[in-house]
Amino acid sequence: MRITYKGDYALKAILDLAIHYHDKPAPVSIQHMAGRLDIPIKFLEQVLLELKKGGFVESRRGKVGGYLLSRPPSEISLGHVVRFIASPVEPIACVEDGYKGCRDIYKCVFREVWQRVSEATMRIVDGVTFSDLLENLNRKDKEQMVYQI
Amino acid sequence: MRITYKGDYALKAILDLAIHYHDKPAPVSIQHMAGRLDIPIKFLEQVLLELKKGGFVESRRGKVGGYLLSRPPSEISLGHVVRFIASPVEPIACVEDGYKGCRDIYKCVFREVWQRVSEATMRIVDGVTFSDLLENLNRKDKEQMVYQI
DNA sequence: GTATACTCTACTATTATAATCAGGATTATA
DNA sequence: TATAATCCTGATTATAATAGTAGAGTATAC
């Protein structure tokens, strides 16, 4: 698994929407989000469109428009998003679905290891939701305040 | 972490040398290895040269020359090789050494997760040596024989 | 009806990957 | 000492992925 810039942007975008999830529908505009996250606007546009296709976010057009999370942060895990944005999730082609290469014996002994790596990875990201991340964020904010006093 | 073809070839090459490690120095020629592993000869040449620079293999020139493992298979772990061939080993840039990007708060909450992923991955590959792989290979060979009877 | 914000398609630059090619240097062995 | 098999070096190529840009179009609120 390798998280590209695009994937990283997608995760940060969802976290940003999670932060703004609390009260009544107040969509976050691409411009504002791009400013906060330091992402090129036109690139973030594409990212959000894909996330919409993936069912992670919704959009409102026109004035006062923008993007919203389509589910509460507690129901979105890192795993969900990673599977969507970081394909392939596997560390090597031979562990992916439908792989037909590798005619010989050698494939097998490595394959088992890559599968274990893949499973360990997914176990971690599946165990983290965006509300977990929000909590960590708040904790960090408080710690930082202590230092600032 | 993502294992490329080149990396995959490197691992298979070392396993091939591990298989031929037993008796007195009988170097394995690139041609023979390339045939067994189904790898383009000139590409395998490059791979073996890099592995030599990495200290994993040695070479003998001239007639009856070829490549040899420079240490016994039990002293070479998958982790050693993966660190050498699969850079970056980390799942995302921000976990790599010397990273200076990501000015804002968001980096941190994801970073922890990527670090856990990275550690879990390395724990697995560090725990597997090429003599472990040889054992698995022999086990598989025996299983296959049973089916062939 | 106009400003604002999302939607969609296409394009470009850069880099990595996976080879391939051509030739030179080295050395064990007959 | 010739020679054959091998290692070694550097350049070149084709393809794909990645990161980002550009611009026209569509919906909505005021």
How would you describe this protein?
2 copies of one chain form a homodimer. By secondary structure, chain A is mainly alpha-helical. In chain A, 56% of the residues lie in helices and 5% in strands. In chain A, strands 1-2 form a two-stranded antiparallel ribbon. Chain A is globular, with a radius of gyration of 19 Å. At the A-B interface, helix 1, helix 5 and helix 6 of A face helix 1, helix 5 and helix 6 of B. Chain B binds a DNA duplex (30 and 30 nucleotides) through helix 3.
Report Rg of chain A: 19 Å
Please identify the structural class of chain A as seen in this structure: mainly alpha
Please tell me the total number of domains of chain A: 1
| Spans where pLDDT lies below 50 across 5 or more residues of chain A | none
Would you kindly provide a brief summary of this structure?
Chain A has 149 residues and is mainly alpha-helical. In chain A, 56% of the residues lie in helices and 5% in strands.
Keywords for this structure?
homodimer; 149 residues; mainly alpha; DNA-binding; Arc Repressor Mutant, subunit A
Structural topology:
The structure is a homodimer of 149-residue chains.
Chain A: H1 5-19, H2 30-37, H3 41-53, E1 57-60, E2 66-69, H4 78-85, H5 106-126, H6 130-148
Antiparallel strand pairs in A: 1-2
Chain B binds a DNA duplex (30 and 30 nucleotides) through residues 4-6, 27, 29-31, 40, 42-43, 45-46, 48-49, 52, 59-67.
